[in-house]
Specification:
By secondary structure, the protein is of the alpha+beta class. The chain has two helices and two strands, in the order E-E-H-H. It has a two-stranded antiparallel ribbon with strand order 1-2. The longest helix is centred in the C-terminal third of the chain and has 16 residues, at 80-95. The protein is elongated. The chain starts with 15 loop residues before the first strand and ends with a helix. The structure holds zinc ion (ZN).
Amino acid sequence: MGVTIMPRPAHRTRSRRKAIVRTPGGRVTIHYELGKPGPARCAICGKPLNGVPREIPSVLKKLAKTEKRPERPYGGYICPKCLSRLLREAVRATIH
Ligand SMILES: [Zn+2]
């Protein structure tokens, strides 16, 4: 696919991901991008969190706050399962 060319010295590193991109002029070129980070994980059980985008900070900066984490207490930090368990435990602790 396309012609491979020698990347410039700054791009001769495996920390950058090759992305094959079709430009508006119809050419297929290689773009050297930063790799995406791993998914955000629950602070308690370590499961990947839903509703939290896997993006590099320069892309996250452009998103609205509501696009970056769920709109609930501890959203983007604790998974819903762990949160509901903690809330139950907190309520039960106040009763007894
Ligand atoms: Zn959890």
